[in-house]
Amino acid sequence: MTNDAASAGSPRSSGCVVDRTIDVTLRGRHRPTTTPSSTDGIPPRIERLHRLHGTSLLHDASILLSLSPSVYATSCVIFHRFYHNRSLRRRDVWSVALGSMLLATKVEEECRTVRSIVAAFVHVYRRRRLRYGDDDALSSNSDIRMAEGASNLTVDEKENALRSVKPMPSQGPIYAEWRDAMLSAETEILTSLGFTLHWIPDSHPHRFILYFARVLEIGGGGGGEKARGGNDDDNDGVAGTGGGDDTTASCVMQASWNYCNDSCRTDLCVRYDPEVIACASILLASCDNDYDLPLIPRPWWEAFIGPDQSLDLSNACNAILAIGDANDVDNRKSRYAYVPSLFIDGPSFNDPESYLWSVA
């Protein structure tokens, strides 16, 4: 590389302190306006519901498998990127979630056996079916309480019912159905994503939050100072430090991390660079805790994502906030209910009318 080329691609020449050498978003800054699902006639709201549903399955399974948050985040990235290449009508959410979890454990080197992953998802499957019944009423949006449970059983009765369920045999048709669905999805995901997954763990926004917080001195040595302007040369727009005591700074950091976790449930990881998501998480957390961050001579986020990124930052913030909307029926359904697939070739392997639905 020539010196001119190196200079042109350097972080300072672009007004950003982060050097991006790998493009982690689809088609770079020319983000696709449609997805394969929307091309197949699936409304954006329904597509969002199924994306949220899939990531909620990954979240529940990762807890049962005692996996690190990084594995969960990696599985979500794989899941979202797959559905930017395939339609929800061509692959059901459950099998893709299974395949994404299996691949994430391999990429993060926190391997679990095929059987243990299957067992975790089977438990989630039984839990959701038990809590919400086996009818199709859950697919309607008529009442928000439908997203919180259709059964009249108490919590203790539901837990006792789950305890009485016999463990899945290590062999047999039930295990074979789940295993085959997972391995088939794993192969299709790898083919769809070009067998290139190694970069994902290093591109999570969580990693950038820690770095950005250190630069902004959130909870650092200057944590008690108020944000100030300044004319210091070569400060890249980060003038001064955050304003607030150590307790507030700690709350900001925790809230930033929580918002970053929420972002995994959306496809922000496909549409925006991780720096944008990290900045959005810090911005939301600082607003929640009235923690002052520098806006003079330039907004603090410009030091990390460059100028002219306010629209992307705003869109990311709105998408993350929408996840926490308690009045959103789809949010509740995705977390607790069984959402039937949109599979075009009839019911998927564990949908109503399937073999597993009748025996699981």
From TrEMBL:
PANTHER family in the record: CYCLIN
Name the record gives this protein: Cyclin N-terminal domain-containing protein
Location of the Cyclin N-terminal domain: 50-129
InterPro entries: Cyclin-like_sf, Cyclin/Ssn8, Cyclin_N
Gene3D superfamilies the record matches: Cyclin-like
Species per Swiss-Prot/TrEMBL record: Cyclostephanos tholiformis
